[in-house]
Design a protein that fits this description.
Elements: H1 19-39, H2 44-48, H3 58-77, H4 84-95, H5 97-103, H6 109-127, E1 138-140, E2 146-148, H7 149-176
C-alpha cells in the first residue's frame, strides 16, 4: 500500500483498510511523507553529523523511527517485549546515545529509507487484518495507566514528528558550520 500523493492531505477511507485504520494510516502517511521529504537527498556525511559530542545524528533518528515502530508492532500485535535477538538488532536505535553513536554511522540514505519502508509495510499489512475494535483494546501502559492501541500507534507517528523537528535543527546546525557542504533546504 503506497501513499497516494493526490490524497495526502485527506483523512478518509483508504483501500484495504477499515475506516478507523484508514484515519490512523492517513495521519501516519503524512508524517512519513514530511520526514522523507526532509532527508531523501542527504549524504552520509550529513546523516552522520553530530552537532555536539553527545548528540544524535540524523541517521540515528531515522533508524530510531523504524525501531520504535518495530517495538510497537511487537507490543501491540504480539503482546510481548522484544526478544534478546530483536534487541541485538534494534537496541542501538532504541537507546540512541553512546550506543547509537557507536553503531549507527556510515550508512547511505538508502539504508535508512529501506528500513523505514520495510517496517511500515509490515505495519500496514498487519493493520489490514485487524478489526477497528482492536484499536480500542486497552492495557496498562506508561506509569501503569490504561492505554489503548489507538494511542500507542498515535505515539509512533507523534514520536516521528518530534524527531523530524530534531532533524530539521540538526540540518540547520550542519548548514551553519564552516567548511561543510551545504544542505539545500529545511
Amino acid at each position: 500500500m503506497d501513499m497516494d500523493m493526490d490524497r495526502l492531505f485527506l483523512i478518509e477511507k483508504m483501500p484495504n483498510l477499515s475506516l478507523e485504520f484508514s484515519r490512523l494510516v492517513s495521519m501516519m502517511n503524512y508524517a512519513r511523507f514530511t520526514t522523507l521529504r526532509d532527508v531523501s537527498d542527504l549524504s552520509v556525511k550529513e546523516l552522520d553529523f553530530l552537532s555536539y559530542d553527545h548528540a544524535n545524528s540524523i541517521g540515528m533518528l531515522l533508524l530510531h523511527m523504524a525501531a520504535v515502530e518495530v517495538a510497537y508492532q511487537v507490543h501491540t500485535f504480539e503482546n510481548r517485549d522484544l526478544t534478546a535477538n530483536e534487541l541485538s538488532i534494534w537496541e542501538p536505535a532504541l537507546q540512541l546515545g553512546e550506543l547509537g553513536r557507536e553503531k549507527i554511522k556510515n550508512y547511505p540514505i538508502e539504508f535508512y529509507l529501506e528500513k523505514l519502508h520495510t517496517v511500515r509495510h509490515n505495519t500496514l499489512q498487519r493493520f489490514q487484518t485487524l478489526p477497528d475494535e482492536w484499536l480500542y483494546t486497552t492495557t496498562p501502559f506508561w506509569y501503569d495507566k490504561p492505554s489503548n492501541n489507538y494511542f500507542k500507534w498515535f505515539h509512533v507517528f507523534e514520536d516521528e514528528i518530534s524527531h523530524r523537528g530534531q532533524i530539521r535543527i540538526i540540518k540547520n546546525c550542519y548548514k551553519s558550520r564552516p567548511n561543510k557542504e551545504k544542505i539545500d533546504s529545511i
